[in-house]
Prior knowledge:
Layout: E1 13-15, E2 29-31, E3 58-61, E4 70-73
Antiparallel strand pairs: 1-2, 3-4
Amino acid sequence: MAREVTHREDGPDVIDPEELDPEYRDGGIYICRCGLSDDKPFCDGSHRATADEEAGVDYKYENDDSEAPRHRIASIEFESP
């Protein structure tokens, strides 16, 4: 089944090492919130592609076009269940 996922975040969640079990406290862990990471659930820095987005504009990111992976779209329409 295919699914369109809408993300409104433009950066990762940062996990404070002090909140982790001691065995994982050697560095921060970054969780993807933008939906663009190829290493989900972890952030790989792909959110940097959103840095120049305009407020109030909807975008669709696709991996089918390496020269223009981001496209402006008129709107996002949700189907009622």
